[in-house]
Amino acid sequence: MSRPEYQAPPEIYYGDAEAQKYTQNTRNQQIQADMTYRALELLNLPPDEPAFLLDIGCGSGLSGEILEEEGYIWAGVDIAPSMLEVALERDIDGDLFLQDIGQGFGFRPGSFDGAISISVLQWLLNAETSHPTSSPPHRLTRFFTTLHSALRNPSRAVFQFYPTSDDQIQLITSIAQKAGFGGGVVVDYPNSKKARKVFLCLLVGGGGTQQQMPKGVEGEDDEQVRFERRREKERKRDVSGKRKNVKDKDWILKKKELYRQRGKEGVPRDSKFTGRKRKPVF
């Protein structure tokens, strides 16, 4: 089956039906979660400190939910209106921007403490028109140059992507380096056909020991990958077995306040009954 990026531009490929289908697919949800946890690991942010992250190609907010669970504030950009519409329907917390990343960003310099991107970068390797500004090198240059400006110093940006050749990897890394980034490619499970994943880990300033390049995970058996992800999910459960992001009263109040700030109408008023646990009805 042909890869999605070869079939149509992302804003067309991910129409209303495909956006819903992608978001509801449990396999996509699991892959997105696994890759987001790994990207955060490579991002190597200081523990127990707040951070403002950029989710590049955020789609319907599957990776953004992981960022929220981990306690980060985030903003997301995506070119597909239908994907962003699904994200709004799912009431995700991040600020969303409709943006063609190949045209670059307009964020204030040093806005973000880091950036992640899951399964997006390969879309920039296709020219949609014959115009010179539509060529992959031009779009990658605009993308990396403006991203470098939007990140604080020091920081990192981590991209999980699906290259089809070493030439694509070389093109991407060379343009990123010309834009001012350090770093390079990290490959997890390089000897496994199923578990192999490619990450581009880019470094902004910092130098020295703070910005040492991470190493890929070695191994051949993708069963180990699934085991590690399961263990990670179990770690996120408290002693009662409930998810740490259980919707308690504080969560509900925070969500309602967010709706009010966004100008949403019909948000219920706060009361002593807000978040009250209701008895089961038989």
Commentary on this structure:
This protein has 282 residues and is an alpha/beta fold. Helix content is 38%, strand content 15%. It contains 10 helices and 7 strands. The chain has helices at residues 4-7, 10-13, 16-24, 26-43, 62-69, 81-89, 136-150, 166-178, 222-235, 249-261; strands spanning 52-56, 73-78, 95-98, 114-118, 155-161, 182-188, 197-204. Strands 3-2-1-4-5-7-6 form a 7-stranded mixed beta sheet, sandwiched between helices. α7 links the parallel β4 and β5. α4 (26-43) packs across α5.
Strand count, sense and closure of the main sheet? 7 strands, mixed
Count, helices: 10
Quaternary organisation of the protein chains: single chain
What is the beta-strand fraction? 5-15%
Please tell me the overall pLDDT: 87
Structural class estimated from helices and strands: alpha/beta
End-to-end separation in angstroms reads 49 Å
Going across the biggest sheet, name each strand in turn: 3-2-1-4-5-7-6
Poorly predicted ranges (pLDDT <50, ≥5 residues)?
Answer: 239-243
Measured on Cα atoms, how large is the radius of gyration? 20 Å
Number of strands: 7
Descriptors:
seven-stranded mixed sheet; 38% helix; globular; 10 helices; 282 residues; alpha/beta
Could you provide a short overview of the structure?
With about 280 residues, the protein is α/β, with parallel strands linked by helices.
